[in-house]
Every structure is written in structure tokens, then in C-alpha cells.
Amino acid sequence: MSQDQQPPAGSPDAQVEMRSWPRGTSALRYGGDYNPEQWPREIWLEDIALMREAGINLVSIGIFSWALLEPREGEFDFSFLDDILSLLADAGIDVDLGTPTAAPPAWFWKKYPQARVITRDGVTLGRGSRGMGSPSSPEYRACAARITTELARRYASHPAVRMWHVHNEYGAPVSDCYSEQSVAAFRTWLRAKYATLDLVNEAWGTTFWGQRYGAWDEIDAPKTSASVVNPSQRLDFQRFTSDALLECYVLERDIIRSFSPDTPITTNFMATNCPSVDYWKWAREVDVVANDHYLAAERLDNHIMLAMDADFTRSLAGSRPWMLMEHSTSAVNWQPRNIAKRPGEMARNSLSHVARGADAVMFFQFRASRFGAEKFHSAMLPHDGTSSRIWREVGQLGASLGSLSAVRSTRVDARVGIVWDIESFWAQDLEWRPSEDLDHRERIEAFYTVLWNLGITVDFVHPEHHLDGYDVVLMPASYSISDHARDNLESYVSRGGKLVVSYFSGIVDERDSVPAGGYPGQLRRILGLTVTEWLPLRASESIILDNGATADVWAEDIVLDGAAVEARYATGPAVGKPALTRHEYGKGAAWYVSTRLDSHGLASYLTGILETARIRPHFTLPDGVETVTRVSDTEQFIFVINHTDEATTVPSAGHDLLSGNETVAGSALPPGAVCVIRQPRAT
């Protein structure tokens, strides 16, 4: 929006514009969670001086402070928060102020035992950990609303508060709850969705196994039962759970907004790693998308998985800036083997997020805890203090981020989209599927890795969203496709789009029901074929295609209905049958991959399809070297991140923002190093 197009001050549009990012600096945001309640006041003063030394400009405060702020129900003590906010304001350090509703106090659990979460197996969860009450508990919601109201009333105009942070990591460790309060809320949710019991019975297929309902109060949560519980009911309960959690967020958000209409409000997502929440819905409700990301440290390709998480977070944010709200300086404390980050790895992790659209780099936490469950979790200031390698790297990262202000608010463009549909994942992960080797996450990682290795940036997309901005859309694992998504995909391809579909996609609709006429019912028209039978392979079995590719896990008996064969099965239970197909559909085309190709075969096949759309790597670089470009209308910023132990070369000339030097194409980039090349935007 140009200067002369700014909305009138105080208008709803102006407030939305103001809420798009925490104001106060033109620099990238840098900092992390700070828990001063764990330390005496003299440590606060030391910490604030160290924050300034490291270049920190934003800290998250108060996220687990409910027991201090409301020591007894209805009695409030804000003295420690008043003090620390005043000190931070005087130091010029901004605050992301948390509501502490992820950790109710002991008095809450004692007075309201009915608010405790009950698992699917009927176990009532005890206290002494972190975790909210049941999302559907009226008592929990009322108490959460009260503490949020008091915080918002007191600090709405505080000069240090630049952002509000509701709760913490909704969906972990508390997601679905099977208490009587949740059952009652589930029935209310079903009434709103279906209106009548007849429509519930139809949607759930309750004529199977004699499950038909004749009254609303006959419906229970899908608790553990004698055998497999109705999968359509379980799918709806998962939708209800995500919505119930979202209602809790919106409740607090709207209270804050009534006192603080111009300040952005967020909560921290866990992007690709929270299976209980539909973030496509949630992203519409936050002012700034914020994400927590922790490496799967033992994976040798964890830098690729980091990039995937960052790309998904950027996709949730759309064109808006987004925040890396939490990551770790080194090892975490909760993985089977908590591998420490090597020298320089923290900076590479951080700058990879920035390369993929983050305008903030934050950590959990600033000072390492001396006690509690996370005392062995790394921090910006480790137990070893300022003499540590980690603290030196924290300061170096602060200086690096300080040199990247020009990158702020630029965007990352992508011509390829990968379908990510959490509702489909919920449905696929239910019991009694044709093979335990059907793993949607594995397929998405496999397809994404091909693109990462090619240096081709991707967005993630929802199958019901607008797709025309993408030349190629990949669908690695979409077991469930709604009627609306089916129509959207057909329209996209008919207008000239290119769609690549992997096996076990389009099998059911949004109710987990199989469409009439054979597999894949939701995609038969667009793919130009029918799968007459699935042919899962044994655990150790592999097969060969007539193009020389090797595959395993899965094969299919395919009958063509307009599609052309690009490769056939040369061995295995479908020998001689089509394995890879292409179907011209309107002005576009749809490809089908009916087996799990090995990494080389998948890369070769996808590269050929991308070539049909003239999508090629911008640069040819060694394996393990990451390149991403952020752009404005006039400039571009090429991030080159060397994840290897060997020197590589800079692929393009320009000004390196990190070193401050001019570079030429072919100049050396040392092992583990990063450069950010600023140059006029290519036309």
C-alpha cells in the first residue's frame, strides 16, 4: 500500500495494517523467551546488559507465570511483571507479552478437577507438568479469560509491549480430551455442522456395524473400544479438537484486542510437527504467523527438514512476514539423543529460516534454567556463561542479523506447490489401511527433498485454495480429497496447470467415504485411469520398472481411460501394467506415480516433469549447498548456505551483506559459511 493509499487512522483497515508486525525497529527481530521469575533481580540487570550486548531487541515474557500473577483465585500480583517490563523498556528492549494460560496454577487443579484432561483410554492426567485444562472446560475458559483480561487492561499501553503472545504451543502436550465436558461440546459442534441426526448418520455411515444414532445424547467421543471405532466419527472428533483449541485462542485474542486494538497478537505454531491442529484455519486468526522449530538432531538431512518447516510456515503466512518464535542454540533435552550443534550450525539454521521468509529469529530461551524439566535444554546464555562458544556465536548472529535490515519485508517467490492437507493426514492415519508402509510424511519429505536438492523453492498449498500462481503442483500424499478440492484441482489443470499425483491419493472424500466407481474416485477423471486393485508389497520386496527405476512398498493394477503410459512394471505383481502415466486434461496435464520410486528414480522423473514447465535450478551447486532468493520490486537477496565440510563457490556477483564485501561469481565460500548477496533484481 503506497503512502497516499494509507487507510484513515483508527479505521479497521488501519488497525489491521498496524497489527501486521511488532513496531519499534526497522531491523529484523532477534531474541527469545525470557523467564525472569526463575532468577533474583540482580540477575535481571545482568541479563538485560547482556541482551543489549548481543543485539537482542525482542523477548517473550510471562508465558508460564500464571501462578505468580494470580497466586490465589481472583487475587493478582503484577509486581514482578511491572518491574521487569520497566527495566526492559528503559533498556530499549521490546516485549512479546504472553498470556500464561498454558500452565494453570495449583489452585486451579485443586478447585476444578473436572477440568482435567482425560485421554482416549480413560486416564485422567495429573498435574505437575505443563499443559492447559480441557479445551472444552467452561472453568478453564473462564479462568483463562480472567487472567487475560487483567493482563490486557494493565499493559495495553505499556511502552515495552510490542506484541501479545497467547498461550504456548496449542496442541502440545494437550490436544484431544475425552471428558464429559468434551463430549457435551462435541455434540454441540456436531449440531452446528450437521443440524440433524439424519445427516450425522449419513456422514458417518452408521448403518455399518449397527451404529445408527436416534438421539443426540447417544453420541459419545470416539473413546477406545473393543475394536476399530467408526473412522468418520474419529475424523470429525479430530476436526472438533482443532476447533476447540482455536476457540480458546480466539477467546483470549479478542479480549486483548478490546484493550489493545493496534498491537499484533500471535501464538506459536509448530508447523509440520503438530498433528492435532489445522494450521490453515489458524493462520487466518493470527496477526503474525509465528513458528517453533527444533531440529530432528540425529537426522543427517535435518537441514532439509528445517527448510521444509520454514517453507510451510511461510506458506501459512501468505505474503505476510513471519517469525521464527523458538529454536535452539544447540541441543534440546527431549529427543532420544540430544545432539549438540556444531560450530556455525546455529547461524546456518537461523539464516536458513531468514532466507525462507522469516523476519525474526528467536530462541528458547535466553538464560538456561538451573532446575526443572528443561534445565538441560540449550539457551542463548548457557550454564557456562559468557565464556562459552555458544554465547560468542549468539553475539555473532546478532551482528549478522543487524546487517540484514534491507531483507526485511521482502518475499520469497515459488513456482512449485506441494499439497499439505492435515485433514487428509488425520484420515489416512486411522486404523486398517492397506499397508503400514503408507506414510504421508515420508512421501512429502521425499518429494520435497528432490526440490531442495535441485535448489528449487516451493510453497505448500491446500487443495481447496487458489493454485493458478503455480506452474506445477505436487500431490505426494492426499488420501482424502473433498469434492471442492477435486473440482479445484480439475479446474487448475484444465486451465493449463501441471499436477503430479502419487499413489494412495484421492481414495476417499472428506467424510472418509469411498466414491462410487473404483479408485482413485476423486481423481479418476483428472488422471484418466482406474485402479482396479492395490498390490502392496512385502517388507523386503522391491520391483523394477521398464525405464530402469527401482521401487518398493506399493504397486497397482491400472486400467487406462485416456492416460498415456510413461513406464510399466517390469517385475512384481503388476508386471506389464502401467506404472507411470500422463494424462492431457484441458490445457494442462496430470501425471500419476503408482509406486514408491527410489530417490534416484523419483528425482529423475520429477526433474523431467519440471522441465516441461521450464523450471530449472537457478544455479548449479554441490550437494548440501542451499540457495534461496528473497526479492523486492527492485532488488534480490541470494542466500547461499554451505552445509558441507568442503569449500564451495559463490554463484553470483554482488554485495555480501554479512561480510560487507563485494563478491564475484566463483569466489570461495568456506565450509559451513553463509553469504547473502544483494544485487538488482533480475528481469
Summarize the structure.
The chain has 683 residues and is an alpha/beta fold.
Whole-number mean pLDDT: 96
Largest beta-sheet details: 9 strands, parallel
Report the count of strand segments. 28
Biggest sheet: strand arrangement: 5-4-3-2-1-9-8-7-6
What's the topology here?
Layout: H1 12-18, E1 29-34, H2 41-54, E2 58-61, H3 66-69, H4 79-91, E3 94-98, H5 106-111, H6 138-155, E4 161-165, H7 180-194, H8 197-204, H9 231-259, E5 265-266, E6 268-269, H10 279-283, E7 289-292, H11 302-317, E8 322-326, H12 345-355, E9 358-363, H13 389-402, E10 416-419, H14 422-428, H15 440-454, E11 458-461, E12 472-475, H16 483-494, E13 498-502, H17 524-527, E14 529-534, E15 542-544, E16 550-552, E17 556-560, E18 564-568, E19 578-585, E20 588-593, E21 596-597, H18 599-612, E22 625-631, E23 635-642, E24 648-649, E25 654-656, E26 662-663, E27 668-669, E28 674-680
Parallel strand pairs: 1-2, 1-9, 2-3, 3-4, 4-5, 6-7, 7-8, 8-9, 10-11, 10-12, 12-13, 13-20
Antiparallel strand pairs: 14-17, 15-16, 16-21, 18-19, 19-20, 22-23, 23-28, 24-27, 25-26, 25-28
Helix pairs in contact: 2-4, 6-9, 7-9, 11-15, 12-13, 15-18
Descriptors for this entry?
683 residues; alpha/beta; TIM Barrel; Rossmann fold; Immunoglobulin-like; nine-stranded parallel sheet; seven-stranded mixed sheet; 28 strands
